[in-house]
Amino acid sequence: MKLGFSEEFALKVISEITPFQHLSGTEHVAPLLYSLIRMLKPQTVVEFGSGYTTPYILQALKDNEDDFNFNLKILKSRVAKNYAKLSDPARKAMLPDDWLLDETTQEVYGQEPVVPIPSFYARPYKPRLFTFEVLPEDDMYVRKLSRLVGELKLDGYFTLSAGCRVTDYVQMVPAERRPIDFAWNDFGNKKRFYDETYDSIREDGGIMAFHNTTSSEKDHKEDLDKVFEAIRPNLLSRKAELLTFLEPHKFTQRSLTVVRKTTGFKDEFFHDMTEEYDRSLLKLSRARSDFMA
What we know:
This is Class I SAM-dependent methyltransferase. By secondary structure, the chain is an alpha/beta fold. The chain is 43% helix and 13% strand.
């Protein structure tokens, strides 16, 4: 399992798309986004406003896919080894605590990857970032970003649409890629972005993240007040959660606000699903011979 992006990666991104400009300050936001995406494992990520954070998002998606394929291989090899034991009817009668302590459970689940949910690995993991940029395709900044993504060998996870408006951009995300798992606004027009995007966010924990949500700039505050007012009913009814991270040492681009949609969220407790986990683990492949591949 990868532990994070390399120093070489960070230095290359900084040299090509520097965050240390007068109105830019994403040097800490980008690694934070990397970690959030590594943790949440989204399939579909959208970004409005490209830049320094883009390569970090793409690297997180690549690292996620690498981990997924590695973990799936481990799970299948353990199932092959313990196939008869996993399908033993006696396991169905085990109480949760006994199931957790059982030797077969320990051998299959109790190593890396730690306590995997087999159903997560039953669906192919093919993550992709859809980036929308207001600048035209022939703009030097857009061309520089595209070149950087190619040099980092991350273009296989990347779809860039240049010359876009905030309005109606979601329709450019392929239907099979919706709902959106993670949406990142690094451009502005936050209320328009919210209006366009919120209904397309996955209901069981999908994320919207906004850059620069506390600022001395008046137009930013007025725009954000409209966003917070629009989302307030969902917060009060517990259909959404909101958290703002502040960088107190900066004047601009000094914060990030995360909105988590919980309209259809349901807690899943490991103890309550022991038998189902065994069944779904056995179904990771359609035939036993597949486990031997």
